[in-house]
Amino acid sequence: MTKVKHHFTNKSNNTCLPTSKAIIYNEVMSDNTLTNGLISRLAELNKKGFSKTEMARVAGVSKQAVSSWFKTGRISKSSALAIADAAGVSVPWLLGEDVGEKDGLKPDEQRLLELYRQLPEEEQQNMLRIVSLRLKELDELYAKYMGRRIKGDTE
């Protein structure tokens, strides 16, 4: 399967089940949306040939636990990560968020990554240095002008 780096969206939060296992859920989702989103994505993976038995093996849980995911729409964080890795999908996608199946990136981020990957390796490294320097410049400007503003406000 494809190796996927998991990117949780800014809106993803962790909550805990009574068993103290973390579940992941988006703050704008109602419980019903979360349940339906996870269940539909699990069902989609199941239709593509990822059996419940295989899900249980990959996540290190019982078949009954997997059946519970399909009924309740709740999954532990570790199980979600394991299933997403094995299926080659992102965790936000698995949880029903409106993101790309493979990467969980926004369209602008996908485009930037596509352009970056077209560059020769040396140019990729140059781009990383340029972006790092620009962020450093912005941090310095922010510190300089915010420092003046704070000092100016007290005078």
Automatic annotation (TrEMBL):
The protein's name in its UniProt record: Helix-turn-helix domain-containing protein
Short name of any one Pfam family annotated for the protein: HTH_3
SUPFAM superfamilies (alphabetical): lambda repressor-like DNA-binding domains (SSF47413)
InterPro entries: Cro/C1-type_HTH, Lambda_DNA-bd_dom_sf
Gene Ontology molecular-function annotations: DNA binding
Domain of life of the organism encoding this protein: Bacteria
Residue ranges constituting the HTH cro/C1-type domain according to the UniProt record: 46-94
